[in-house]
């Protein structure tokens, strides 16, 4: 249905010429918002602890929605927070930016955002848990020739909530087998904006909601003063995206969310306060990705 709607809309005159709306280009803010939001949340959940803590991460992924252009995404996040003693509560500031190059090599989208958030961590004899909530303002940019989508920039708001539970299946947190479950939700609201393509039409305000459910099976161990946690993970991604209202026409957004991702990686921590993780992944479309993050606590 989305492909039929897009084809029908391509026949409509926009200004002086008929121009096909590419839903993949105008849906990039959904994808990029998810990438920086989930990246920020995972960094905060990894790094939070009493005192001053910070973490930065970068990741590359490829999104290949059906019946639409694919996009090569590179994102970066940084987060710094303070944990209030043994209360388990932390407050943090964050920054994220991401860019996607579409497969026609002529269109690009970018996003940047500053965040404020709270995190909480606790544990029982058999379980460790954490959660984070955050909000940020996004600035979104589309850069393309007018003959395609044209250029535009617009603002939005990101609101996210993530939670994580780790249970020990055998052994101890220092040496054994554990299972981590993480759930993430992110809402991205964007204002209406005008593109220089499509005859200067206005794209209406809209919102998207991204979700992820991720399971990690880890094997924590100690090696020469380092704590290591090799793991295998699977993530289920989904969500909802509002239609694109361009002028008086409505088309379905390109599916920026739906996929399943499989990952292998390792977390690491040293006694001097350095820690992080590295990870390689592949999704069900066969697209490969990579992630690296490093943090410090004082």
From TrEMBL:
Keywords: Signal. The keyword Signal applies. Residues 1-20 form the signal peptide. This is Autotransporter domain-containing protein. It comes from Sagittula salina.
